[in-house]
Amino acid sequence: MISQTLKKIGLIAIMASALLRNNTAFSQQELMVDMSETIAPIQPTMYGIFFEDINFAADGGLYAEMIKNRSFEFTISMMGWSQPNSDRHSYNNESGFAMPVKYFEGEGNLNFIRVQVKNAEGYELHNEGFRGMGIKEGDTYRFTFNAKQMEGTVSEVNAFLLDEDGNTIAEVSVPVSGSEWKNYKVEMVPNKTVMKGSLKLTFEGTGELGLDMVSLFPTDTWNGRENGLRKDLVQLLYDLDPGFLRFPGGCIVEGRTLARRYQWKKTVGPVEERPSLVNRWNTEFDHRLTPDYYQSFGLGFFEYFQLSEDLGAEPLPILSCGIACQFNTGELVPMDELEPYVQDALDLIEFANGSTDTPWGKVRADMGHPEPFNMKYIGVGNEQWGPEYIERYKVFNEAISSKYPNIIIVSGSGPFPDGDYFEYGMKELKEIGAEIIDEHYYRSPEWFKENATRYDSYDRNGPKIFAGEYAAQSVAIASPDNKNNWDTALAEAAFMTGLERNAEIVQLTSYAPLMAHAEGWQWTPDMIWFNNLESYGTPNYQVQKLYSTNKGTDLIAVTQDGKNLVGQDGLYASATLDSEAGEVVVKVVNTSSDVQEISLNFKGKKLKGKGKVLVLKEENLSQENSFESQDEISPITEEIKVRGSSAMYEVAPYSLNVIRIPIH
Fold it and tell me: Where would I find the Alpha-L-arabinofuranosidase C-terminal domain in this sequence (predicted)?
């Protein structure tokens, strides 16, 4: 009796489950994937990277230097440094003191410090690093500095790496001698891993010692380059397989004032000769004031080009058009004084592509890269708007096109995806015959889903589009409470089907901003988060990676009842052929809370057999990745079975699904 009862209960449960599946939890969608005709090639540049030095992304981040203010060039010369056993305002203190000395006027390395040691047992000089120093047990760190004896008998510099409690975890002594500047280099291997270490210097002997360019780098950098880039962060970029690298920003291109704009010529040549500049994000937001945020330009234009080459990505530099950030001063260079700005653009092309017998090609060669970087793109202006931008852009366009007709010039439609600024800019740039127009949008997740059709109606014979900066904002633009949650990432995934489906005109796309230090950020959300030791990709990163590494080579149609799938029942889709892999790639995004069964019907080519599905899914739209759970939202791989010319697949709620099936 019990057995029969259990069987009946089981049968009822199965029937109830089937009923629920048919009536509520599941709906079936018929999709047609037409492989008989390609619509447009998917450009290799379709998915790329936008880099800006915001959120400590360069100094304190990608650039692996661990010493803050290594050459004492900050506006406050000793910022980042402390002398715990010294009253630096008293020349009569018993231990000693260090004071900055300006020994060069102009630009470059202007300052050094004069360290006066009165009591070698008592004087210490400390550097705090960028929100501390991430130090790993057993790794090797290269400590370098410039020094000269000035008076007395200071004969050694002792360097100590300290943990958070001030305990020594590595130490080394370096003999110094001579009244001329010399560079000293040693290596240190710590015996402990710490998140927020620091550097302490002490001295043997008494007297005065000149000290400059105090530097500490891990030796295990990207590609093993001395004084190079942080390996884990570049690896995350490399794994995106980006088609381009846009640099150096962003609003730092413009500067709050023209005097503080980014000038590429000051970022090349010997690192120790590059002038520092206060970062334009240092006090931009009251919620995240960072007055110690400067640019050393150790990561400069040469290093950006080199990184592009490492990533297999097209370099896409953006230059000032002679207008400071219009959200700040909006300062304009007069039209009759614009020539040096235009010349900077022409000289940059020569630096990137010129032969070694050209002036700027020789600079590149002297830096260790005699071969050209083969730059194809250059951007003029970032988020400028209005007649002032158009007037200046025309001058750049004429000069660059005349001398370098093969260079593709990227223009900008302003900071917003709609409104008067946008409409005016698009109209004027179309009349000029602009090749590529950069559009930016920081909007709500709802906006991204609703605008998956944005480019469906764009003129196929008009300018190409660069979706240069986009990110769904969970709260509001520039809110410190924005989150990189699954809701934002899923909305971006839905929107990106529209980018891909319009590959005829949308040829470059990139999320922004790229990186943020966990304790040094100013803006959220951001694609990659890092601290002094670790880094991880957000759900937004995982979405970008799935698109970029599964872009295919040719756009094809995927439709439902002859129409594009753009939000019907919460579903969005795009499809490509991958001629290199011999596969068809279908991306399906489900923004609904229901499981949806899709029937994929293929025509035009034969399917070989079972395929695979890369799935990103999470039922909690507020879920994020974190340092503690870095892979909370990350792809899993499932199988999809093929029968003849069709395949069935159950699309999970709130999911991105990349379906790959081999074809004949």
Answer: 468-655
